[in-house]
Amino acid sequence: MPVIVVGGGGRGAGKTTLICGLIRALPEIQWTAIKVTSHDHVNATPVWEETTAGEDTDTACYVSAGAKRALLVTADDAELSPIVQQILKQCPPPAGVIFESNRVLRCLSADLCLAAALSLKGERKPSFDLLEERMDAMVELAGHDHVIRGERLGFHLVSFEHLSATMIAWLRERLEATAG
């Protein structure tokens, strides 16, 4: 089962849009997409499932993009690990799981870590340091699709919603390698 973490430096980094692009680019995988937050969203339980497609919330966007399941997890660091482990047990192959979170990396080892970066200006989440240590690639918006190979792999995309053929091929290759 592939596990992907998409994080970012702060609000508005493009994390949700990138996750939706991943779901659309890899439709053969039955995705469970999970938004992890420590902010209270007035749900009765720490795990809430979205069932309606839409554009009003991140989880509704996941459903619109084709996620089989979309969850909102509201938990502080102490509560997060057991919740994540329970969710992973409920997602047997051929399912895949995508987390929108930096701090989820404290309680799981992901097959792929991507950093969404519409902009790294402004206030940066302290948890971004953890993502930066583990990220496999930085994904940024640019005028045209291209790849930057250097100390860190970088995908520069015209749109996070429609990933480049090069990035999709890289994703499939990486996920196949981790499955074997």
TrEMBL record:
InterPro entries assigned to the protein according to its UniProt record, in alphabetical order: P-loop_NTPase
Stored SUPFAM superfamilies: P-loop containing nucleoside triphosphate hydrolases
The name this protein goes by in its record: Molybdopterin-guanine dinucleotide biosynthesis protein B
